[in-house]
Amino acid sequence: MRLSPSLLSADFGRLAEEAEKVKGVAHFLHFDVMDGHFVPNLTFGPPVVNALKRYTNLPFDIHLMLERPAVYAPRFQVGPDDVITFHVEAEDPPQHTIEVIRGLGCRVGISLRPGTPLSAIKPYLPQVDWVLVMSVEPGFGGQEFLPGALDRIRNLKRLIGRRPVTIAVDGGIDPGNVRQVVEAGAEVIVAGSAVFGQPDPRAAAYRLLMAADGDR
User: Fold this and answer.
1) Interval 67-80: pLDDT, tens
2) CB neighbours of 101 closer than 8 A, spacing ≥ 6?
3) Mean pLDDT of 50-71
4) Is-above-0.70 flag for pTM?
5) What is the sign of the dihedral through the CA atoms of 28, 26, 18 and 6?
6) Which of 61, 92, 170, 174 does the annotation list as catalytic?
7) DSSP secondary structure, 59-95, as one string
């Protein structure tokens, strides 16, 4: 399992310091980019995300919860180790968004809301590197994990088959349920409040990794 702590739960006034706290434990840094339209919340945009590139070597896991992902994706400074994920329900046609993100030289991710059937992303699986399963309704941190996500992960794993597509899961994951999520098929865990919402984010990230291995 690889860990992608979500800065949505971090101190927005000290993002560079917060990123440093999980160095050596995290495998990615997760950015929830929201526009107030696709989801009812506003967070940070390209200027903030790009500024943090100077302060960390961790790959960026950028989750676009935007109506127009194809318009905003090119505004992020990314490299081959980074991933930009968009939602299949967004206004921009998925095929166009995939082509735009691929043209940036990074990995392409696709996501969907908990109520959207997996069939919505099936046509795009041969063209993406990453699928982000939402185990909460997107928009706000600190929500409870939706148990139905476990079957959804298992079904997605069967749908992917032998394709080299990474399964990431985001929402309500903590040391009490992370093992189940990994056993269902998750390869990357996105966690916000379980990491940055704790007094010692580095220790919390380590506990999450240990719990994923069955050691609580």
Assistant:
1) 999 999 999 999 99
2) 69, 73, 84, 86, 108
3) 96
4) yes
5) positive
6) 170
7) PEEEEEE-S-HHHHGGGS---TT-EEEEETTSSS-HH
Whole-number Cα distances in Å, 14 to 11, 167, 196: 5, 30, 12
Catalytic residue check, 215: no
32 given a catalytic annotation = yes
pLDDT digits (tens, 9 = 90+) for 113-127: 999 999 999 999 999
> Could you say which of 32, 61, 82, 92 is catalytic?
32
Tell me which residue of 57, 66, 52, 56 sits closest to 12, measured CA to CA: 52
CATH topology of domain 2-212: TIM Barrel (3.20.20)
Cβ–Cβ < 8 Å for 97, 90: yes
Q: Of the candidates 94, 51, 52, 49, which has an alpha carbon nearest to the alpha carbon of residue 69?
A: 94
Can you tell me whether residue 174 is helix, strand or coil? coil
Contact 129, 85 (CB under 8 A): no
Give the type of residue at 59.
Answer: P
